[in-house]
Write the structure tokens for this entry.
Amino acid sequence: MSTNPEAPETMTGPQENLQQAPASQEPEAAAQQASGAAEPQQESLYRIWESAQSRIDPKTLNLKEELVMLNRTAKVVKGGRRFSFAALVVVGDGEGHVGAGFGKANEVPDAIAKAAEDGKKNLIRVPLKGRTIPHPVIGKFGAARVMLKPASEGTGITAGPAVRAVLQMAGVQDVLTKVIGTNNKINVVKATIQGLSQLQSPEAVARARNKEVEEIIGSRKKRQATEGASPQPSSTPESQEAK
């Protein structure tokens, strides 16, 4: 029986081509995957750098502390009751920096110290407009809703103890506030700080919109003027007869 030596070559040729085809596509797919993975990595690195730039060093600030809440809890054990304390402290410099912290310990001074250290790690910047805030804002945390509204000079801080502590430490002197939903001091304090973190100065808004500060302030004043000059309902003959 005669065999054809060229037969195996003709059979292996297409198989080699089939096996080599994916190999030629692997570098392109690998390059696409590498580029796709590099973009999220660059974005995450930029966010880390941005957060590091916006981080506040508490050592450079003259921070003050104010105790907002101190709770005592008891645990019943075989030998009796063990007491522990939880403290809520607000820290700030009165010049646009404020933060709140929560701490627990078996002794009151230790709980307050832990809460103060936690508050220094959570400092935020608050843009101020003189003695008040730039614009109205609503802070939310849990069931708490805290409404903050600018007020004219001399109004003072119309707020409860928890909200007042945060605003005083932030440096706000004239503001109108209202708490809705709950009176839990922890939620109210965190909602107030969340609302203050949403504030933006006219310079920041103008920079984000690629406009001049005068344009932002002018459009705001124009909008306020149109809202204040809304037409009032005219008196009807029936109302005049009633008078």
Notes: Residues 64-197 form a domain with the Ribosomal Protein S5; domain 2 fold (CATH 3.30.230.10). The beta strands are 64-77, 80-92, 97-105, 124-125, 137-141, 144-150, 157-158, 175-180. The helical segments are 7-54, 108-121, 161-170, 185-197, 202-209, 213-228, 237-242.
